[in-house]
């Protein structure tokens, strides 16, 4: 008998899992770790074309041994003794792992770019779009060559959304999936757009608006792409097998039990517990229910520390200073890291403000989500990290957090943008928010003396506090910009208008600026935060 094949870290093979329709499928996966529990071998697998939040421990029965691929040997792989720190040795070479990570990142970028049809955090229906890049000229032979968009929009689009121009070909609808919210989701290619009518005075229900060239735009030059190394952006060079694996089994937070999606650096001794208990008001972590009950007799918090700066109905927002409330801020970061993969955790919370959204009942103010923000941002970032906790997702709270961040920017008299890179769910939520906010303004514009309504990119930016680059990329994403008879025109088709109206009817939660009591501080004048 041939000796049984030993599966080691770095091996790849198809692994059985259930998709969203509870059907069996065998996607390719990489073995990240192997352990033995009660004489049974367990394998921690990462599904190659799926988000890391679906990684899991599986038994031998779920592995397809016939298609096993061994890791490629790298001549320069360091020996086990040569490895620094407590990182487990992996037979896969470091450079190969880095190359694979790059390939995975490209794949996830491609997924995010094409995942416009079934997005979870998005209520605005996908606009019917053509495959060619925006701006699209109407189907008439142009007399003059079509110039580029104002403010070099191509550069800004590349900066905000990965510039994947053509939709990839799908083997079948079942083959390609995007993971949103921890579940695999079918990815359906967006339907091809209808040909636009050539005449701008057409009879179908299409609204036309003139997009004017801002006087200062021409001197702005090409905006540089935003840096990808923001204050909280994860530095992937230290990414190792340990941080690629979920380490907390389950978290009990108030009446909710949460299954973490990603690694979070809680103390090592807590990672072997079946449940990690958190006080839902101060977010202190405890190892047992008994410890939690004892803590609750002493903890007199019933809301996040800091100032309540907004209240309407049962929704409140609290502003927490990362220097004054260090323990709470660090505990919040540890909890958030369980559900955020793109951001890293710094124990130095001093440079940050945290805005925590809560829902009130007779027992207190329960955390729903939060966003953090640098006290001083050189890049116009108005959000560093943003998260709606899983029990509250898909209920409109994510958009409420985004809307609140822009309301703060309006009070500060600034335009803002979220720190890049956004996660897949973050990108979907922001795209949806930007689309609805900009369409709301465009549809409110009234014709002037029978002429088409007129607006500039800067005006949209000033009204919404959305940064100019994000306005341009959203107009392109919605495919609204056309070039006709020497000028830019925004074309609102019947589909776009109807889709927007449907989406707004579903959007019940809104921020009321009258309920916001917030005075911005000038942090630059403070010697110490």
Automatic annotation (TrEMBL):
List, alphabetically, the InterPro entries matched.
Answer: Acyl_CoA_acyltransferase, Chromo-like_dom_sf, Chromo/chromo_shadow_dom, HAT_MYST-type, MYST_HAT, Tudor-knot, WH-like_DNA-bd_sf, Zf-MYST
Q: Does the keyword Acetylation apply?
A: yes
The reaction(s) this protein catalyses = 2-hydroxyisobutanoyl-CoA + L-lysyl-[protein] = N(6)-(2-hydroxyisobutanoyl)-L-lysyl-[protein] + CoA + H(+); (2E)-butenoyl-CoA + L-lysyl-[protein] = N(6)-(2E)-butenoyl-L-lysyl-[protein] + CoA + H(+); (S)-lactoyl-CoA + L-lysyl-[protein] = N(6)-[(S)-lactoyl]-L-lysyl-[protein] + CoA + H(+); L-lysyl-[histone] + acetyl-CoA = N(6)-acetyl-L-lysyl-[histone] + CoA + H(+)
Q: Which family does it belong to?
A: Belongs to the MYST (SAS/MOZ) family.
**Name of this protein:** Histone acetyltransferase KAT5
Q: GO BP, one example?
A: double-strand break repair via homologous recombination
Limits of the MYST-type HAT domain = 243-520
Q: What EC number(s) does its UniProt record assign? A: 2.3.1.48
Q: Where is the signal peptide?
A: none
Where does the record say this protein resides? Nucleus
Q: Give the positions the UniProt entry annotates as the active site.
A: 419
Region (Disordered) residue ranges read 69-150
The UniProt keywords, alphabetically, are:
Acetylation, Acyltransferase, DNA damage, DNA repair, Metal-binding, Nucleus, Transcription, Transcription regulation, Transferase, Zinc, Zinc-finger
Record's Gene Ontology CC terms? NuA4 histone acetyltransferase complex; nuclear lumen
Give the main location. Answer: nucleus
Extract the SMART domains matched here.
CHROMO (SM00298)
Renumbered to this chain, the Pro residues biased-composition regions fall at: 135-148
Annotated Basic and acidic residues bias: 93-109
One example GO MF annotation: zinc ion binding
């Amino acid at each position: 008998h041939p000796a049984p094949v030993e599966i080691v870290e770095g091996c790849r093979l198809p692994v059985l899992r259930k998709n969203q329709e509870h059907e069996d499928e065998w996607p390719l996966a990489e073995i990240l770790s192997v352990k033995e529990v009660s004489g049974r071998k367990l394998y921690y697998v990462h599904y190659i074309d799926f988000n890391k939040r679906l990684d899991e421990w599986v038994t031998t029965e779920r592995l397809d041994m016939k298609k096993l691929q061994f890791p490629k040997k790298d001549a320069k792989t360091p020996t086990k003794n040569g490895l620094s720190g407590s990182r487990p040795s992996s037979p896969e070479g470091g450079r190969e792992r880095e190359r694979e990570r790059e390939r995975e990142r490209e794949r996830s970028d491609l997924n995010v770019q094409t995942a416009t049809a079934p997005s979870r955090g998005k209520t605005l229906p996908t606009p019917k779009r053509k495959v060619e890049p925006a701006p699209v000229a109407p189907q008439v032979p142009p007399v003059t060559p079509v110039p580029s968009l104002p403010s070099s929009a191509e550069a800004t689009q590349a900066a905000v959304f990965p510039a994947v121009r053509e939709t990839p070909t799908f083997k079948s609808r079942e083959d390609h999936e995007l993971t949103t919210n921890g579940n695999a989701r079918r990815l359906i290619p967006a339907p091809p757009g209808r040909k636009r009518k050539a005449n701008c005075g057409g009879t179908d229900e299409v609204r036309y608006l003139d997009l004017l060239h801002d006087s200062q735009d021409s001197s702005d030059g090409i905006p540089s792409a935003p840096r990808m190394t923001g204050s909280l952006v994860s530095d992937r060079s230290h990414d190792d097998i340990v941080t690629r694996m979920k380490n907390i089994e389950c978290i009990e937070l108030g009446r909710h039990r949460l299954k973490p999606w990603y690694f979070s650096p809680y103390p090592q001794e807590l990672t072997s517990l079946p449940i990690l208990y958190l006080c839902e008001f101060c977010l202190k972590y405890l190892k047992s229910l008994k410890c939690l009950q004892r803590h609750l007799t002493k903890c007199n918090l019933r809301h996040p520390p800091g100032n309540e700066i907004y209240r309407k109905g049962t929704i409140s927002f609290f502003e927490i200073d990362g220097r004054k409330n260090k323990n709470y801020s660090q505990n919040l970061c540890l909890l958030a890291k369980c559900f955020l993969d793109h951001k890293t955790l710094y124990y130095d919370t001093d440079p940050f403000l945290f805005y925590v959204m809560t829902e009130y009942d007779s027992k207190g103010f329960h955390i729903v989500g939060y966003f953090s923000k640098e006290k001083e941002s050189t890049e116009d970032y108005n959000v560093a990290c943003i998260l709606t906790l899983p029990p509250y997702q898909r209920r409109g709270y994510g958009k409420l957090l985004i809307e609140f961040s822009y309301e703060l920017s309006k009070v500060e008299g600034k335009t803002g943008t979220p720190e890049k890179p956004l996660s897949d769910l973050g990108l979907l939520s922001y795209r949806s928010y930007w689309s609805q906010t900009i369409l709301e303004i465009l549809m409110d514009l009234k014709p002037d003396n029978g002429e088409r309504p007129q607006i500039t990119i800067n005006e949209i930016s000033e009204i919404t506090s959305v940064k100019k680059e994000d306005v341009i990329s959203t107009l392109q994403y919605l495919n609204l910009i056309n070039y006709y008879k020497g000028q830019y025109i925004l074309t609102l088709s019947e589909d776009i208008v109807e889709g927007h109206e449907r989406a707004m009817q579903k959007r019940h939660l809104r921020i009321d600026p009258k309920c916001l009591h917030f005075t911005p501080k000038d942090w630059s004048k403070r010697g110490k935060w």
